[in-house]
């Protein structure tokens, strides 16, 4: 199973990667991690994946020692899903986010809207909290259901 993770927070992506490698027996060769809206979208357009795990809030470009990543897209994960639909790309996708609210809109409301907007490939939203394990249970369940 080839999985693309689009996540700019290195701590969060490391925890998610370790979980996938150890608890779900995904091999390192099957995981690809991108750190921004742009690099994530390019990977989606140029490759085939069996699963997409998206952060909701993403910098426009990869952050480097010489580049601050540009504007932060508060709902960049949602925009990636819109671009996928526009390009007729249907990868099973889910949002894994540390935030419960985006500009006054609750995560559960966004989740409902995304299910309605992308019923053929959107798998749901998972709230990530590094001090809890509920996200792991939910992620494992969604992956096993594929």
Topology:
Elements: E1 3-6, H1 10-23, E2 31-34, H2 37-46, E3 51-54, E4 58-59, E5 72-73, H3 76-86, E6 93-97, E7 101-102, E8 105-106, H4 107-117, E9 122-127, H5 134-144
Parallel strand pairs: 1-2, 1-3, 3-6, 6-9
Antiparallel strand pairs: 4-5, 7-8
Helix pairs in contact: 2-3
Protein name: Response regulator receiver domain-containing protein
InterPro entries: CheY-like_superfamily
Describe it.
The protein is α/β, with parallel strands linked by helices and 146 residues long. Helices cover 39% and strands 21% of the residues. Helix 1 links the parallel strand 1 and strand 2. The relative contact order is 0.17.
Provide keyphrases for this structure:
Response regulator receiver domain-containing protein; CheY-like_superfamily; alpha/beta; 5 helices; five-stranded parallel beta sheet; 9 strands; Rossmann fold; 146 residues; 21% strand; two-stranded antiparallel sheet
Q: Can you tell me the overall shape?
A: globular
Tell me the structural class.
alpha/beta
Look at the structure and give the CATH class: Alpha Beta
Q: What's the tally of helices?
A: 5
Biggest beta-sheet profile? 5 strands, parallel
> How many domains in all?
1
Strand content: 15-25%
Q: Uncertain segments of ≥5 residues (pLDDT<50)?
A: none
**What is the name of the CATH superfamily?**
Response regulator
Portion of residues within helices: 25-40%
Q: What is the terminal-to-terminal distance? A: 10 Å
Strand order of the largest sheet: 2-1-3-6-9
Corresponding CATH architecture: 3-Layer(aba) Sandwich
Computed CA radius of gyration, to the nearest angstrom: 14 Å
Mean pLDDT: 95
Protein name: Response regulator receiver domain-containing protein
